[in-house]
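Try it yourself: sequence plus zinc ion, in.
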Amino acid sequence: MIVDCPHCFRRVITNDDGSCPSCGNDPSKAGNSDPNLRPARIASEEELPDVCIGCGVPTPLRRKFVRRRTSPHASEAGESVGGVGGFLLAIVFRFLLQDNKQTVSIKLPVCQSCSTKEPTVLHIDFDNYEADFVVHRLFWDALRQKRKDRET
Ligand SMILES: [Zn+2]
Ligand SMILES: [Zn+2]
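Structure, out:
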């Protein structure tokens, strides 16, 4: 059965025992998830509405969200050269990788009280500079409106 899991906010095909293959919870039970929350995909450079992603109140504040992909290639390259030179090379290589391709950086709108909480991230897509967050319904509505305005 295809359902929208209220625990991990993914559309999933349930396991034989009815559990969610993504998070292991039972999608037929709402659990303690907030009905005002929903998943949203946000791009790195996207201009976001002045609405708190956590609780939906208007806010001018932003909280920087940064994630780097740790590249296995960077350390391999250094180790294969060996010695101090290899070590330095690994650092430079890692630095370049992170700066160019491996970082997703998003300025999330948050209110004062939500600014201390870590945002809930469902998935980070480093190749497309996007991330899926759990956001408040009001933020999602404002974001959708903003995207619509941009199109016209
Ligand atoms: Zn789930
Ligand atoms: Zn808030």
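One thing you can check immediately is this: The chain has two domains: 1-33, 36-151.
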